[in-house]
Amino acid sequence: xxxxxxxxxxAFLLLxxxxxxxxxxxxxxxxxxxRVTTLDNGLTLLTLPDPxxxxxxxxxxxxxxxxxxxxYTGLAHLFEHMMFRGTKRLPPESHERLIESRGGRVNAYxxxxxxxxxxDVAPDALPLVIELEAERLAHLAIDEATLASERQVVxxxxxxxxxxxxxxxxxxxxxxxxxxxxxxxxxxxxxRSDIERVSVEECRRFFATYYAPNNIVxxxxxxxxxxxxxxxxxxxxxxxxxxxxxxxxxxxxxxQRGERRAxxxxxxxxxxxxxxxxxxxxxxxxxxxxxxxSLVLSGGRSSRLYRELxxxxxxxxxxEGGYWELADAGVFYxxxxxxxxxxxxxxxxxxxREIDRLREVPVPEAELAKAKRQIEVGLLRGTATAHALAARxxxxxxxxxxxxPIEERLAAYRAVTAADVQRVARQYLRDEKRNVIRLVAPxxxxxxxxxxxxxxxxxxxxxx
Amino acid sequence: xxxxxxxxxxxxxxxxxxxxxCALLRxxxxxxxxxxxxxxxxxxxxxxxxxxxxxxGLELLVLEDHALPRLEVGLLLRRGAxxxxxxxxxxxxxxxxxxxxxxxxxxxxxxxxxxxxxxADLAVGADMDSVSVELSGLSGDAGLLFxxxxxxxxxxxxxxxxxxxxxxxxxxxxxxxxxxxxALLSRHLAATLYEGHRYGxxxxxxxxxxxxxxxxxxxxxxxxxxxxxNAIAYVVGDIDVxxxxxxxxxxxxxxxxxxxxxxxxxxxxxTPPARRVVVVDRPDMGQARxxxxxxxxxxxxxxxxxxxxxxTILGGGGFLSRLMSRVRADEGLAYGVxxxxxxxxxxxxxxxxxxxxxxxxGRVVDILLEEAERLRREGPGQDELRNARSLSAGRFVLGxxxxxxxxxxxxxxxxxxLPRDALDTYRTRLNDxxxxxxxEAARTLLHPERMAIVAVGSAEVLRPQLERFGPLEVVKP
Lengths: 464, 477
Known about the structure:
- In chain A, strands 1-2-6-3-5-4 form a 6-stranded mixed sheet, with helices on both faces.
- Chain A is 43% helix and 16% strand.
- In chain A, a hairpin with a 5-residue loop joins strand 1 and strand 2.
- By secondary structure, chain A is an alpha+beta fold.
- Chain A has 2 domains: 207 residues, 2-Layer Sandwich (Cytochrome Bc1 Complex, Chain A, domain 1), CATH 3.30.830.10; 181 residues, Cytochrome Bc1 Complex, Chain A, domain 1 (2-Layer Sandwich).
- In chain B, helix 2 packs across helix 8, helix 4 packs parallel to helix 9 and helix 10 packs across helix 16.
- Chain B is α+β, with helices and mostly antiparallel strands and 477 residues long.
- In chain B, the strands form 2 sheets. Chain B has a 6-stranded mixed sheet, sandwiched between helices.
- The chains are: A alpha+beta (464), B alpha+beta (477).
- At the A-B interface, helix 3, helix 4, helix 5, helix 11 and helix 13 of A face helix 1, helix 3, helix 5, helix 11 and strand 10 of B.
């Protein structure tokens, strides 16, 4: 994780620098009222009441993601599914059924860096949500039967979102091309072979290792009584025992020497072209300049990629670029859905021209101001619902160990200059460090079924 | 470690139990208590809501909310793609698209810059029953947001060059849909149920119908749709009501009253007349995307609340629903399965949809049909109905968390002429539905014996499994 001290210093300097900018009305950032409670067992609880909303958002962020998997890819995500498959006292699916039967919404997701369980409920259902969370953390039941059926559900999810979906295939190929060493190269949902083979024992070991109170941050926002909620969390979750802190994998991506390219065949009329470059991790002082570059490239119909690829050249249905930040590393990407009547080579040249322009010519003042304004308005949107607020404070806490005030973030964005954008473009978006993926229809005479068939004589199934 | 913690808890419990009355201090787990009855009562903050009607008949709704310095201004037109002739399907959607490409003094680029320089978003959208124009940004830019709204709504340019570009983009996007299994499924489902009616094509139309559209067609369509008496304006966010009314009056007060266009004709009352199976052949796919469907009900149907509860029990209620319980939780056959009514001005389809590994498609269709039949036969259990009420009421309230969502729900009522207090009375109406009404809804609205079955996937794998359900036709994407 990046050091928060360095980040705070940078933010302070940026705040000082922006004192000279025109004064704007201060934003009332509710996140500043977050109360942090640390239980004796290391569990962190963030509470932020707001009586004006009809909802309570409860989110449990566990510091484990696909990058922590040791042998079986997809284990973190498959395990997230198993968290809904019952406890010693409650049958499978009770968790979500009990919450839904009280009018709540409940779900979970897994990323490369963390796993998040979230519920949005009416205020009177908060005690139930807390007790259910405690119940599965203390008494989760995993057996062969529930794992066998959930494995099939996850394989369907993989077919649905990745295998039968051109965008899913591109994303998967993109990660493994970009990262040679870091486990970010593995898709969060995992490889089919591994999902098919994860055992009950592996799931139990994973649970015991990572689902410990000192590896968990809980955020509660919305309409609830703060003292009562803290007491309930303490009572329900305070007896879980901490484990030794778990060091994350030490792997760092080695510097890239030279461009990498890959082609993926799929049954498409509309090819997809994607490019990536390595960029710094979450919290790095260059992050804001890279975000501004993203908006210059793809912030609406007046942005560069839309103008050049979609509008002027009429080669793409959509084109965008962006900075994607993860805990250990970042990726800057550019992505185009090429028109069925378009030319992939030409789209790549047009992309390259826009990247060159970012490196060679400082972004004009009006365009810079526009990008920054778009970011500013977007930041305000993130505080509109209890759910969004809970996600924001929990993510900040898990990633930075503190909650970044909106004013601080606004100041950091306002301080970005055209020279900063040019500098980060030159530093990160180098041709020698470019990764290019093309997803296109297979050439005539090549069938996808043949490509997918196992090699003749090769044994397909291995023992578990 | 967890075992030890649990053991200690039990010791404490034992020690506690030895003390008279101490058991009272350890309440039963929250999940053993039944859910509370569904709360009733208003959900619209009347103290922040203001309505008025301008002299030309334009309705205006203002919802003040000063929590954030944000502002949304919009217009909703009470007719949509339903009014266009079938051979011009996609005209309203293309009109909406081109409205974002130049208005008033500004050409496409100048309009985009004006919007984006203030960090705002402009969205002109079309669906079957309505057209919307919305600008959202910061309240400090109120004047400009209203100016841009008026320009886009009242003075779109429809430059021939922009129409040509938008048309080519739409055609390319329609072709690209063939790459997307989900889009393929919707398109072929609509065609199977409503061939010859406007509902038989998506809002965007088809490559053939879009090819015929030109600037004159779009301009004429805009003139018919954009009249004051066909519109409701809304303003939500950090603004005082007097200012909001003054802004709207200044820009829309002189708008011609006009007459709303006639709604489109209704689709056949019963569709399909008999079971049909359509397989859209995508040999490369590992899954079969499945939809089972027939006619549903209109947005204004008197049975809509009972029908909604019936659907929640069958397939609309997440993990509480019968379909999710069987198909996902018990059998591991799908990642998701759901059902729902597309309630439009006229009855849109009722659809059950899921996706499963192709070799299991036949088994999954059996389960889906069986569950529809079982609900017709047995009706809901007491707990099922209670849970469905609670889930529906809960989702409804959570869906109204922001002022923008409340305003959106209120103007949607206006499109269909539904009562203005429909949000405030919804939970009472949910509670009032009798179990017999839910059973009646299942019996009159579900017809598993004649549902159309549409599948996207490998015809080679699907044909042998699906031909037993009815006459089967294999089509190209």
